[in-house]
Structures are given as C-alpha cells and as structure tokens.
Amino acid sequence: MKIIEPSVELTEDFDAVAVMKKIERAGRVCYKSEANITDDSAEKFIRGIIKRGHESVIEHASVSFKIICDRGVTHELVRHRIGASFSQESTRFCDYSAGKFGGELTFIKPCFWSEDDENFQLWRATTELLEKNYLAMRANGAKPEEARSILPNSLKTEIFVTMNLRELRHFLKLRTDTKAHPQMRQVALKIFDILNEKLPAIFGDIQIKERLT
Asked: Are 133 and 30 contacting, i.e. CB atoms less than 8 angstroms apart?
C-alpha cells in the first residue's frame, strides 16, 4: 500500500502575454476600441473588465491540469462542469492487482490528521484492510469493476481537467474558501498558486485567507 500527497501539474505551459493579448482583442470588440491596443495595454484592460464583472471575455482562454487527489475530491471537482472538461482514471478498467500498479492500492493522505493522531491510525488500518480484501477478491476471480465496490473516497485517482478562465475564477472563489472541504481546498490552493503566478491580472484579486500549513 502507498500513501501519497495530492499534486497539481500544469499539463501545457502557455505564453501568458499571448493569452492576455488574445483576451484583450476579444474584449475590445465589444467596445470597438481596438485602436487603443498597445504593447502593454492588455493588463489594465483585463483588470478593468474583471472589476466591472464583464468576465465572459476571459472564457476565450482555457488551461489544463493533471490532478492527483482522492476520489472524494473529484466528486466535488466535476460539479464545475460548465466551461470545463474532465477525463478521469477509471476504477472499472484499471486493475490495481496488475503489474503496472505494483499489485497494490494507493491512497491520498488526509491533510487534517497528523500521523500520530488516533483517527489517522484508524484510517490507515482501514485502508490496509481494504487493500487486502480488494486483492483477495481479484484473486478469487472478481472483475475489477466488481471489486471496486469496496474502494473508498481516499483512493488515489488522476484526473485531467480543462477549464476556461472564467470557470476557474468561479471554482477558485468557492473551493479556496475556508468553508470548503479541507482536501478540496488543498488542491484548489495549488491551482490558485500556479494561475496567480502566471496570470495575476486575472486571478490576483481572489483573496485567500488562512493558508494551509
């Protein structure tokens, strides 16, 4: 059995300047102000339309991530389906008893318990038992799609996510909030850090409180 931390990977790097210029070109069509485009006008223009709530303009750009997290997180993630696409690892077609998975299950470490917490020890004992029983069911002839019925939310999964920038703003406002589920927030903060570094004019106004330690 493996226990790992969640991770977020930007699947394709992008030219932030080119993205900003594309959004500016699209947005200025609305106001017929294309003549005002200069080499450095995009950031001011985009900050202005976001401040005015004219966020449909930023739908013209999308970003893709490969996210490794637990399945419970993906149940929340895929609810953001407007302006988003998802491709997820299948527990029906992935046989975790097979060689490419090392014949073992992988689980995502809960971020809300320390390893010396009794609840973490109970969680670990449960996942060890589930792995043992999953492998036993496969050895007894159960198909992966049948044995998966005992797999928990903590099971590691991989999901490829593409969202346009408007939906990403909506997602981050909800899922980085302190009221979000801790493990969903853990992933959302990783996404925010990537996007805020690359596109601060679009994501820099999102306020993050009480960062996770």
From this structure: no
Tell me what percent of the residues of the chain surpass a pLDDT of 70. Answer: 99
- Residue 211 contacts residue 178 (beta carbons within 8 Å): no
175 belongs to the catalytic site: yes
Q: Which has the closest alpha carbon to 90: 158, 185, 168?
A: 158
Q: What is the reported pLDDT for 210?
A: 78
Dihedral angle computed from the Cα positions of residues 67, 70, 71 and 75, in that order, rounded to the nearest 10 degrees = -70
Nearest to 163 by CA among 95, 63, 48: 63
Angle at which helix 42-51 crosses helix 16-31, to 10 degrees, equals 60
CA angle at 9 for the pair 164 and 5, rounded to the nearest 5°: 125
Q: Which residue has the tokens 């004019």?
A: 201
Q: What is the pLDDT of residue 11?
A: 96
Is-contact 82 58, C-beta < 8 A? no
Which one is catalytic: 28, 71, 124, 175? 175
Domain boundaries, the chain: 1-13+62-213
How far is it, in rounded angstroms, from Cα 40 to Cα 18? 12
Helices (H), the chain: 16-31, 42-51, 71-77, 118-139, 144-147, 165-175, 182-198, 200-203
Q: Which pTM value belongs to this model?
A: 0.94
Tokens 């980085």 correspond to what residue?
176
Contact call for residues 156 and 4 (beta carbons, < 8 A)? yes
CATH class name, domain 1-13+62-213: alpha beta
